[in-house]
Every structure is written in structure tokens, then in C-alpha cells.
């Protein structure tokens, strides 16, 4: 699936990953809680999730 998010800045994307009730980062924390792991995402780590993906079909070094 492709979605265009060009109008959102980095801060908005990080906010979307962490703030909604069912945010992805919250879901990851819950999954790790099952194994008694306390998962914490700092701001720089949260921003790593929104790093640009390599172009499709490109080489992966």
C-alpha cells in the first residue's frame, strides 16, 4: 500500500506514531510487556521510524 504524506512534517509523523490511543509505538510497548520488557522510545529513536525508505528496486548496501 502506498500513501502520500508529503504535507506532514517530521514532528507530525512522530506525533502520529506515538500519540493516538492505538499508536504503533504503544502497540510495540504492549507486545514487549508480554515478555516483561520495558520498551522506551526516545525522540531520536522515534524519528528513525520515519527515515526515508530506499527506492524500490534499489540496491541495499
Describe the protein in words.
The structure is a single chain. The protein is an all-alpha fold and 61 residues long. 41% of the residues lie in helices and 0% in strands. It has a domain at 10-48: Helicase, Ruva Protein, domain 3 (Orthogonal Bundle), CATH 1.10.8.60. The protein has helices spanning 10-18, 24-33, 43-48. The model has no long low-confidence stretch (mean pLDDT 80).
Offer a few descriptive terms:
single chain, 61 residues, Helicase, Ruva Protein, domain 3, 3 helices, 41% helix
Shape: globular
Largest sheet descriptor: none
Q: Tell me what the CATH architecture of the domain at 10-48 is.
A: Orthogonal Bundle
Task: Please tally the β strands and state the result.
Answer: 0
What is the topology?
Elements: H1 10-18, H2 24-33, H3 43-48
Question: Quick recap of the structure?
Answer:
With 61 residues, the chain is mainly alpha-helical.
Amino acid at each position: 500500500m502506498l500513501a502520500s504524506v508529503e504535507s506532514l512534517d517530521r514532528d507530525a509523523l512522530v506525533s502520529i506514531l506515538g500519540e493516538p490511543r492505538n499508536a504503533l509505538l504503544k502497540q510495540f510497548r504492549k507486545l514487549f510487556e508480554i515478555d516483561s520488557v520495558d520498551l522506551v522510545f526516545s525522540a531520536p529513536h522515534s524519528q528513525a521510524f520515519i527515515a526515508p525508505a530506499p527506492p524500490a528496486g534499489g540496491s541495499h548496501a
